[in-house]
Write a structure and sequence with these properties.
- The chain has about 290 residues and is of the alpha/beta class.
- About 30% of the residues lie in helices and about 20% in strands.
- The strands form two sheets. Strands 4-1-5-10-9-6-7-8 form an eight-stranded parallel beta sheet, with helices on both faces.
- α7 packs parallel to α8.
- It starts with about 25 loop residues before the first strand and ends with a helix.
- The relative contact order is 0.19.
């Protein structure tokens, strides 16, 4: 099930070689075809894997190490350059196969539009799905400059698919008036500016439910993650993001999939964004995937 043969070293640290024994599958979605400010997130998945080698396999926060979590790195899905529609179809087919094999999909983006076909497939398996979304941007537009397939529209599509009341949005600090009005009137559990405190308050109501977690790296303040396509000042710290992932991991929800998107390595020569992303992915693996 290799999406693309990995070159030497380009797998996430401690990934297992045996797909059949894996409980989760990491895969890359190298797409930035609808970027409206700075392209380059298509290079994010590869760089996250490369810098993951700087991490320890052990998380002192969760008391687990990656050797205890059987996961497989399938490489990047080969996507047709510049074609959002066909790219989303290919992502959807790939994730459908992961789910058919009874494995948790953990995606690396890529622009945030890539989350849409993933959630669509996960929803087919889990009709009572809830989505936890951490981001600087609401992503609730119906279209952007005439395009309905845009990095600005995935959460609107998801809300209309699974029901707005099943979407929890956290850390939002940018959007149009119409997006904020839609969030207020639609029933979305919408929490601007903050992440950890409102998340902890929301989690008890999700106990026992399947949950998909999607994290846009720009939920972090640009001081912590400058390497992204649309940086937005006044964000949260990397520590708060990690503690939020831990809160989900320690809750009674059943995480059935996750992704981390919008790392654009070209805008951060220090790699601090990619390293932060890799660490968050490590915590997702250790916190969300059962042994």
């Amino acid at each position: 099930m290799r999406a693309e043969e990995a070159y030497s070293g380009n797998v996430f640290i401690a990934a297992k070689a045996d797909l059949e024994e894996a409980r989760a599958v990491i895969y890359g979605m190298p797409m930035d075809w609808t970027a409206s400010f700075r392209p380059g997130s298509r290079f994010g998945p590869r760089r996250i894997r490369e810098v993951s080698l700087v991490l320890e396999e052990y998380s002192p926060h969760l008391g687990r190490e990656l050797g205890e979590v059987p996961f497989y790195d399938a490489g990047d899905i080969p996507l047709p350059f510049g074609n959002p529609g066909r790219s989303l179809e290919k992502i959807g087919r790939f994730v459908a196969e992961v789910l058919q094999r009874d494995k948790m999909p953990i995606g690396l983006g890529g622009e945030h539009l890539v989350t849409w076909p993933v959630v669509r497939e996960v929803y087919k398996h889990f009709p009572d799905l809830a989505v936890i979304h951490m981001d600087a941007h609401a992503d609730l537009r119906t279209e952007y400059e005439g395009e309905t397939l845009s990095h600005a529209t995935p959460l609107r599509k998801i809300a209309e698919l699974i029901g707005p009341e099943n979407v929890i949005q956290l850390g939002i600090r940018s959007g149009t008036r119409e997006e904020f009005e839609y969030a207020a009137s639609s029933g979305i559990r919408f929490h601007p500016f903050e992440v950890l405190k409102p998340l902890v308050e929301e989690l008890p109501a999700l106990a026992g439910r399947p949950v998909y977690v999607t994290v846009d790296i720009d939920v972090l303040d640009p001081a912590f993650a400058p390497g992204t396509g649309t940086p937005e000042p006044a964000g949260i710290t990397s520590r708060e993001l990690m503690e939020s992932l831990h809160a989900i991991a320690r809750s009674e929800v059943k995480v059935v999939g996750a992704d981390l998107v919008e790392v654009a390595p070209a805008y951060d020569p220090t790699d601090q964004t990619a390293v932060a992303a890799a660490k968050m992915v490590r915590e997702m693996l250790l916190g969300f995937v059962p042994a």
